[in-house]
Write a structure and sequence with these properties.
Blueprint (H helix, E strand, L loop, with lengths): L12 E6 L3 H11 L14 E3 L3 E6 L4 H6 L5 E5 H6 L5 E5 L5 E8 L10 E6 L2 H10 L3 E6 L6 H4 L5 E6 L3 H5 L2 E10 L1 E5 L1 H6 L1 H14 L2
Parallel strand pairs: 1-3, 1-4, 7-8, 7-9
Antiparallel strand pairs: 2-3, 4-11, 5-11, 6-9, 6-10
The structure holds 1-O-pyrophosphono-5-O-phosphono-alpha-D-ribofuranose.
Length: 215
């Protein structure tokens, strides 16, 4: 066995967390392992120095970029976002929160995709949509939107949407029905690979403590 890796910098670990409702759930989970993030997101600040950790607040879809770029050592990202991102991150723990599903949806009158020659898809998840199209040998134009994709079929922009759904109420309110379930989603802890080597002890300790409190 070689020498144990040492933390050469001694700097606090940086944790990239997604803005929004999920913060309340994360505060509960991190609180259980003694990390108080209850103040995070309560004002307009984006960086919080919590002593042992620095927390940065980012758009959910940007978490992989911050962690892969080394600006954060650890992050919390949904499987939907990770699948869409072209980053190589260590994913040691499924936090089992923010559960939802990736689906394909359409208007009632629209035929099932299998019966279509060429169709259009509106989505925030173009890679996921492309994978679905290719796996099924469909021919489709994929239109990338930034949000409210349910509008696409209503105004004739697209035939189908590929999007996440949790309660189904947005689909229902807009007269759309789910026609395919692509995969289940939950939030995961992600770690920058070099950070993990440099700060193995501290990061592993956090992972172990969190893992004990999940399930
Ligand atoms: C997400 C998703 C759906 C909605 C689904 O959008 O894109 O629109 O939530 O949730 P539901 O099944 O519980 O109704 P989000 O709220 O993130 O807004 P956005 O579309 O502007 O990204």
């Amino acid at each position: 066995m070689g020498m144990k890796p040492r933390d050469p910098s001694g700097r606090p670990l940086t944790l990239a967390l997604p803005k929004g409702r999920i913060l309340e759930v994360l505060a509960e989970i991190f609180g259980r392992v003694g990390l108080d993030i209850s103040k995070v997101g309560k004002d307009r600040k984006l960086v919080y120095d919590l002593g042992r950790f620095v927390v940065i607040l980012v758009r959910a879809s940007d978490v992989p970029t911050y962690v892969a770029g080394g600006a954060a050592d650890i992050g919390v990202a949904g499987y939907d976002v990770l699948k869409e991102s072209d980053t190589d991150l260590f994913q040691p723990l499924d936090l089992q929160i923010a559960k939802c599903r990736m689906i394909v949806a359409k208007q009632e009158a629209t035929p099932l995709p299998a019966a279509r020659d060429h169709f259009r898809i509106a989505t925030k998840y173009p890679r996921t949509a492309k994978e679905w199209v290719e796996e099924n040998n469909y021919t489709a134009d994929i239109m990338k939107l930034s949000g409210s994709v349910e509008l696409g079929p209503l105004v004739g922009l697209a035939d189908y949407i590929v999007d996440i759904t949790e309660t189904g109420s947005t689909l229902k309110a807009n007269g759309l029905t789910e026609c395919e379930h692509l995969f289940d989603i939950s939030s995961r802890l992600v770690v920058n690979r070099s950070s993990w080597h440099l700060h193995k002890k501290e990061i592993n300790s956090l992972i172990t403590k969190l893992a004990r409190k999940i399930k």
